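Class prep. Protein, please:
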Amino acid sequence: MAMTIALAPPLDAEIGAQLVEAVGTDDFGRLLLSIAGDIAHVDELFGYIVVDGKEPRSIISNSLLAGADERVKSYMHHFYRHDPAVQHMGKIKKGHSFVQRIGLKDIIPYDYREHCFAKPGFSEKLSFGWRGAGYLLVLSFYRIESSDQEVLGKLASLANLTLAIMVKRHAPIDKQSFVDTMERRLQRSFAALTQRERQVCARSIAGHSAKKIGLELGLSAGSVLTYRQRAYQRFDFNRASDFLPALID
């Protein structure tokens, strides 16, 4: 059954900062589960992305219970399309979020209900999602105990922060738009760069090879390397990523 959560209580800012600090480390999933456990007695969590036209891809999973890896594999390969949340996702428009509370009785296929809910002892799953341009992100929290409205509101605040992190790290990027953004920010923060140096550095930050940059800009690969090296030397940098701290808003 679908349910809207309004006026979600704010997440403790210091706790949120700890979670952001752990992004990209092995501690992120464990910390997220620990925070969710303190807020709402969450026993397991699982997040994934679905790029339009492709199969879902797992991006985060952590549990206090045994067998979590097997449950994730079974869900991804066998039960994904039987999930009531997935059936609800098709109605979500770009730029909108959703939340759905799914109880044991809402799971129809017996093997899905038995393997992913009854066997580990879960009474409900709380799924939060975001529909972006060409993709969908979903974060689900599994609980053995049932939830009340206050607990759900607090968990929604944590889910919103986590979904924002997932968007930043895993959402597909419009590469040309990204390059254009990097060029503008290089001009803003590194005014000493020439136009060619900005063009080369923006594409280097996007991960383009010297050969590819040369084809895009009508330059030889050797000229691309020269422009790149000049740009690095202006600021005593060693690599394109050295520009990034000043380019992130």
